[in-house]
Specification:
There is one protein chain. With 178 residues, this protein is mainly alpha-helical. It is 52% helix and 3% strand. It contains 7 helices and 2 strands. A two-stranded parallel ribbon has the order 1-2. The chain is globular, with a radius of gyration of 17 Å.
Length: 178
């Protein structure tokens, strides 16, 4: 299974259970959203972490879909103080581990070293890390470019085709044909 298939499967399995239960139900800024803001340094770090998790290959990567900017908006408008603290702690932990294990800031490492570090520090039991990982996947798959790279995209409105032939290896449909 390649990384793209893994990302797609994680997103499908996770469904609406990630990012905090209120995220998908909230259309505007939450009244109880935290007051923290991601600094430019943290945004740059988040952008590089996102690109490490979803690198540009034959399809667009996380940077090309502006994942960090989307996450920044969610961070400000949706996350509670506790969620914001956990998220920042996850970003800080990655950069601290980068300095400790690799000898430099995460953003200064080569792409191979970044991937090696992410594999060393990932911990599904760490709520902050898990939330960061899932919001990166959600942001990517919510973007038009990410959606088109991961699925056979059919824009809405459009014609509904209920019986579409499937060949092994075809991408799943997103839009009216799913």
């Amino acid at each position: 299974m390649n990384r793209r298939e893994l990302i797609k499967n994680i997103a499908i399995i996770s469904g609406g259970l990630f990012i905090g239960s209120n995220f998908l139900l909230t259309s505007c800024k939450r009244d109880d959203a935290g007051s923290m803001v991601l600094s430019e340094d943290l945004l740059k770090l988040l952008s590089e972490i996102s690109e490490t998790i979803i690198p540009e290959t034959e399809t667009v990567g996380a940077k090309a879909t502006n994942v960090a900017q989307f996450i920044s908006k969610v961070f400000q408008d949706i996350y509670s103080e506790e969620e914001q603290s956990q998220f920042i702690a996850a970003l800080t932990m990655i950069n601290d581990k980068s300095k400790e294990l690799m000898g430099d800031d995460f953003v200064k490492l080569s792409s191979d070293k970044r991937a090696e570090l992410i594999n060393k520090v990932k911990n599904p039991k760490d709520k902050g890390f898990l939330a960061m990982y899932q919001i990166i996947l959600f942001s990517y798959l919510s973007s038009e470019k990410g959606l088109q790279a991961s699925f056979r995209y059919t824009p809405v409105p459009g014609k509904f085709i209920g019986d579409v032939p499937y060949k092994k290896g075809d991408k799943m449909y997103a839009g009216l044909n799913f």
